[in-house]
Design a protein that fits this description.
Elements (H helix, E strand, L loop, with lengths): L11 E5 L6 H14 L2 H4 L3 E5 L5 H8 L5 E4 L16 H6 L4 E4 L2 H7 L3 H14 L2 E6 L3 H5 L3 H10 L13 E5 L13 H17 L9 E4 L4 H8 L6 E4 L6 H18 L1
Parallel strand pairs: 1-2, 1-8, 2-3, 3-4, 4-5, 5-6, 6-7, 7-8
Length: about 260
């Protein structure tokens, strides 16, 4: 197992709140998180949170003077226009967002998002100056059938038109095995390392600046599993779901990422 990460890739830990939260609860969570993540920890790791759309302004107010950034769980595939209910990349940027997610497995499964649509969303995010976090990953049936690399090849291959664009704005890949999301099961370090290595080699072959691109792991990330995952040279942080709603757990995951960065430097 590799233990050293490229110095060009600073770890990134992103908390995806999904459809959770409320004004008072968010205030408590953000205040607690700020108290637990001191400046020393944030010297070695980038941290972001993704509240639901209605609370982005609240996150902006609470985090404007903090080292923690914020972003959106989705972004429109169009720059503007008659698209009722959609939120454009420019609007997110106007709210101070640093990131936008495209292609989370829940949206692929529940809302039928295609690889082409995910690419379009990422393209508009990057064009607006947002960092785009694109999620990829296989289902349990696909893994058991031995199709993991074929699925990842299809999903990551759809992003090939973004190869040149990714040099100007940051494109992040999040490997999230669908069978591990919200199930309490996490990929083993060996499974995660193999998938991340495959994704990085495929990105490099397509002309992406793969050695500089961050590839995150997502799927029931907890403080107990974070240390082993972040010790892998190809894992550059995490996209965290349920644990991001617990300030102590999320801060613990961030601290594991910071420790990993320091020990692999």
């Amino acid at each position: 197992m590799e233990s050293r990460r490229s110095s060009a890739r600073r770890p990134l830990v992103v908390g995806n709140w999904k459809m959770h939260g409320g004004t008072a609860a968010n205030e408590r969570l953000l205040a607690d998180l700020r108290a637990r993540l001191d400046a020393h920890a944030l010297e070695a790791v980038d941290v972001a949170v993704l509240p639901p759309y209605p609370y982005l302004a609240q996150a902006s107010a609470w985090l404007a003077d903090a080292a923690v950034s914020w972003g959106a769980q989705d972004v429109a595939a169009w720059p503007e226009g008659a698209y009722t209910g959609e939120v454009s990349a420019a609007m997110l940027l106007d709210l101070g967002c640093r990131w936008a997610v495209a292609g989370h497995s829940e949206r692929r499964a529940l809302l039928g998002e295609t690889d082409a649509l995910v690419c379009a969303k990422a393209q508009h995010a990057l064009a607006a100056g947002l960092g785009a976090i694109v999620c990829v990953g296989e289902t349990l049936a696909e893994r058991e059938a031995g199709d993991t690399e074929a699925v990842l090849q299809r999903q990551i291959g759809a992003l090939d038109p973004l190869a040149e664009q990714s040099f100007a704005a940051e494109l992040v890949i999040a490997y999230e095995p669908v069978w591990a999301i919200g199930t309490g099961r996490s990929a083993t370090p060996e499974q995660a390392g193999a998938a991340h290595g495959f994704l990085r080699s495929r990105l490099a072959a397509a002309g992406f600046p793969a050695d500089r691109m961050r590839i995150l792991y997502g799927g029931s990330v907890k403080p107990e599993s974070a240390a082993a995952l972040f010790a892998l040279a190809e894992v550059d942080g995490g996209l965290v779901g349920g644990a991001s709603l617990d300030a102590a757990a999320f801060a613990g995951i961030c601290l594991h990422a910071a420790h990993s960065a320091r020990t692999s430097a």
